[in-house]
Design goal:
alpha/beta, hydrolase, 8 strands, single chain, HDACs, Histone deacetylase, His_deacetylse_dom, 12% strand
């Protein structure tokens, strides 16, 4: 199989009404094991990331306030979580899961983070339940340690990767692509290198047609030697806040398109799971599990 970062600290204080989608972090590994998609030996639990890697993309003062539990009330309201030492540790573990997964993907072709996709965290701010931008940290780490010369971040969560765009606005070696809901959060968008804003109720046919038109040319243009894929499943029609009309099968086809083009060009991929807020937890788990199933078929070891 392939490496999968698993954070054992998945239970921590969250606002009323947000406990339910967090359960996927505990249940998704169990589903992957039950379906035979993964083995116990595929999972690894990361330590907190080295703060020097965080400082490479986040303002040091902001990162230190977060790590030390000293964010202001206004900053915490923007993030949406209650500030605790456990929350800081979990976020730093998630970031390292993506860093370590990216390094492992150089050998295995692909690696996953059960959590991650914290793409709303910008250089000097957190918001939307995101505090440290895991894929931004890992992308810059690969560049700084000469593990990659050009990185492409493909963000297909229904929400724009505004924090990632904010961090890499002046970084020519990291290309940010976000395809997201035009009228969805964040309501003040940042400028990615390529933004594709979708109308409400965009269906499978429209979504997949656009992606098929964009991806081959984008890979040819950017010529990345590493891809980070943010694979949120909040594009589903069943999602409570997504406002899209895609099916589980359409979401699976999306994953196939991304991973097939990476495999075709021999580009390693690190995949973070991103959002998913369908009323039935089973729907979220099945959609996420499909991403791993697709990967196991495209990247056989």
């Amino acid at each position: 199989m392939f490496p999968i970062a698993f954070d054992p600290i998945y239970k921590y204080p969250v606002p009323e009404g947000h406990r339910f989608p967090m359960d996927k972090y505990e249940l998704l590994p169990l589903q992957l094991l039950r379906e035979g998609i993964a083995k116990h030996t595929d999972f690894f639990s990361p330590e907190p990331v080295d703060m020097q890697a965080v400082y490479a993309v986040h303002d040091r003062a902001y990162a230190d306030r977060f790590a030390q539990g000293k964010l202001t009330q206004q900053e915490m309201r923007r993030i949406g979580f209650t500030q605790t030492p456990l929350l800081a540790e979990r976020e730093l573990r998630i970031a390292n899961g993506t860093v370590q997964g990216a390094l492992k993907a150089l050998d295995t072709g692909i690696a996953f983070n059960i959590a991650g996709g914290t793409h709303h965290a910008g250089r000097d701010f957190g918001e939307g339940f995101c505090m440290i931008n895991d894929q931004a940290v890992a992308a810059q780490y690969l560049i700084d340690h000469k593990k990659a010369k050009k990185v492409l971040i493909i963000d297909l969560d229904v929400h724009q990767g505004n924090g990632t765009a904010h961090i890499f606005a002046d970084q020519p070696r990291i290309f940010t692509f976000s395809m997201h809901g035009k009228n969805n959060y964040p309501f003040r968008k940042e400028k990615s290198d390529l933004d594709v804003a979708l109308d409400d109720r965009t269906d499978d046919n429209t979504y997949l047609r656009l992606l098929k038109e964009i991806l081959p040319n984008l890979v040819e243009q950017v010529r990345p030697d590493f891809i980070f894929y943010q694979a949120g499943v909040d594009i589903l029609e069943t999602d409570k806040i997504g406002r899209m009309s895609c099916t589980v099968q359409g979401c699976r086809h999306r994953d196939e398109m991304v991973l097939q083009i990476a495999a075709k060009h021999n580009i390693p991929v690190q995949c973070s799971m991103g959002g998913g807020y369908s009323p039935q937890l089973r729907t979220i788990l099945n959609a996420h599990a499909n991403t791993y199933q697709v990967a196991s078929q495209i990247f056989p070891l």
